[in-house]
Design brief:
The protein has 505 residues and is an alpha+beta fold. The chain has helices spanning 17-29, 79-100, 123-136, 151-157, 159-162, 184-197, 247-254, 277-281, 334-337, 344-353, 355-366, 369-377, 437-448, 450-463, 475-488, and strands at residues 6-13, 35-39, 69-70, 76-77, 111-113, 116-121, 146-148, 171-176, 180-182, 201-204, 206-213, 219-225, 231-241, 262-274, 286-288, 302-308, 311-321, 388-392, 396-403, 406-411, 414-418, 424-429, 503-504. The longest helix is centred in the N-terminal third of the chain and has 22 residues, at 79-100.
Length: 505
């Protein structure tokens, strides 16, 4: 066995928003622990966390229609919307704590207030949106939502989208002003700068090649230093694999029973970005539509005002696509290499089940720019091709696993897979991902460090005051926390956001 170069308490693999969040939390809860980070690229936040590789929506279910489904009896199921919103409130609390503690500066570099809207067309969709509005606006988390099907009102809200529409078109929208645009790339970089100041060892251009259990129960990672070609060995009592699409192959190398019967299905994405400043200025909001039949949830079309490098931009998408790579910087053999004896049946079952999705993705890959412009024109009727350029977004790897719904079920969401003894954990999956990072990492701490949770609880509650409490069931606490985080993060640009009544016109 080679010489082990270094022992750490914790190793974080991948310098994305998840590792950054876990590292920042552990530094508050156990400052004396020794943390080492390995990232194969030359800086933090370059893959899924990068601002050009995700939608930047602070996912709070304010506008995403796929978080509210219609039940068989016609009523609206708000369970998932409430859950996603509460998870984002947890992220806001932790970021506010870091800002107030002077551990993060200038929150406007990573979070900006922006209205979140849902937009639908056609009679049945309008009826659905009205029902959704009525169901959500009774819940404190969504009480400031407005609904309108009045073309004049919609022209005020979304002038660019309403240009050149005929008055008889059936169209409706909801709007809530407390939405946010989050630059997860900037947030990730700020968190790693903070971690560097607390003596966390960051190793860029270091690729983790293998992970093995040692005789004393800790874990050894084999690391390739890309610059000098050397191989190093590092051990830790706890390892977190937060390598985005690269997490699944590393999880498989651990050999833990929990890594069996899990596969990954890569989905790539494209956005159109507007290069005409006049058009960019005409729109202010994140406007989400309804996904086409057969499209995966991460392909919900949306027209987004974004703040990137403190500059306002306008993006439309995402257009789904397919590439066998698990990371943007990955290999064309990633998908094939992830098929193992332990998951081959799961993968084959998913392939058979998801023919419609595969067909949809192939169609999307084959689309010309003009066909993509046609989709954009459903939002902006007079969009001109020369005003829009194509950007390639990040790779997402959807989890495939055996569930009650059957073998090889495609999971849309984010999940943590951990060893029974809590000594190693990996984060897999996609949206709402980064928005829920803090909640996901709190659950990871409970699962992997149960012996410490009692002593950590007072500190966790200082960082996340609503820890262990449902905000939906505690409207007073929600209002207090929402106002406090708004203030800390500089989001209260329009004065007080909360009003007693929800509004409808």
């Amino acid at each position: 066995m080679s010489d082990i170069q270094k022992k750490s308490d914790v190793i974080l693999i991948g310098a994305g928003v998840m590792s950054a969040t876990l590292g920042a939390m552990l530094k508050e809860l156990a400052p004396e622990w020794d943390i080492t980070v390995f990232e194969k690229l030359d800086k933090a936040g370059e893959e899924s966390s990068n601002e050009w590789n995700n939608a930047g929506t602070g996912h709070a279910a304010l506008c995403e229609l796929n978080y509210t489904s219609e039940k068989a009896d016609g009523s609206i199921d708000t369970t998932k919307a409430v859950k996603v919103n509460e998870q984002f409130q947890v992220s806001r609390q932790f970021w506010s704590y870091l800002v107030r503690s002077n551990l993060l500066e200038n929150p406007q570099d990573f979070i900006m207030p922006i209205p979140h809207m849902s937009l639908v067309q056609g009679e049945s969709n309008v009826a659905f949106l009205k029902k959704r509005f009525e169901a959500l606006s009774n819940i404190p988390l969504f009480q400031d939502m407005e609904y309108s099907d009045d073309p004049e009102k919609l022209k005020e809200w979304i002038p660019l989208i309403m240009e050149e529409r005929t008055p008889d078109e059936q169209i409706a929208a909801t709007k809530i002003d407390s939405g946010t645009d989050v630059n997860f790339g900037a947030l990730t970089r700020k968190l790693f700068e903070h971690l560097e100041e607390t003596d966390v060892e960051l190793n860029y251009k270091h690729s983790v090649e293998d992970i093995k259990r040692t005789s004393d129960g800790s874990w050894e990672v084999k690391v390739h230093d890309i610059d000098n070609g050397k191989i190093e060995y590092h051990t830790a009592k706890f390892i977190f694999i937060g390598g985005g699409g690269g997490s699944l192959p590393l999880l498989q190398k651990t050999g833990i029973p929990e890594s069996k019967n899990i596969g990954g299905f890569p989905v790539s994405g494209l956005f159109m970005v507007c290069n005409n400043p006049e058009v960019v200025e005409k729109h202010h909001g994140k406007v989400y539509g309804k996904a086409k039949v057969g499209a995966p949830p991460m392909s919900v079309p949306h027209l987004d005002t974004r703040f990137i490098d403190n500059k306002k931009s306008l993006l439309f998408g995402p257009y789904a696509g397919f590439s066998p790579k698990f990371l943007k910087t990955g290999s064309n053999f990633d998908l094939l290499g992830s098929v193992k004896p332990s998951n081959v049946l799961t993968m084959l079952a998913a392939g058979a089940k998801e023919m419609a999705l595969t067909k949809y993705l192939i169609q999307q890959v084959m689309s010309s720019k003009e066909q993509r412009m046609e989709e954009l024109r459903e939002f902006i009727p007079n969009a001109k091709s020369e005003d829009w350029d194509i950007v390639v977004a990040g790779q997402r790897v959807q989890v495939i696993k055996d569930t009650e719904a059957g073998k090889g079920t495609l999971q849309f969401g984010t999940e943590v897979v951990s060893a029974a003894d809590g000594s190693i954990a990996a984060l897999l999956g996609a949206s709402p991902g980064a928005s829920t990072a803090v909640q996901v990492m709190l659950e990871l701490l409970e699962r992997c460090f149960p012996q410490h949770i009692k002593e950590w609880e007072p500190k966790i509650k200082e960082m996340v005051p609503s820890y262990g409490v449902s905000l939906a069931e505690n409207p007073e606490m929600f209002r207090e926390i929402h106002t406090a985080t708004e203030e800390a993060l500089g989001l209260n640009v329009n004065g007080p956001v909360h009003s007693a009544e929800s509004k409808s016109s």
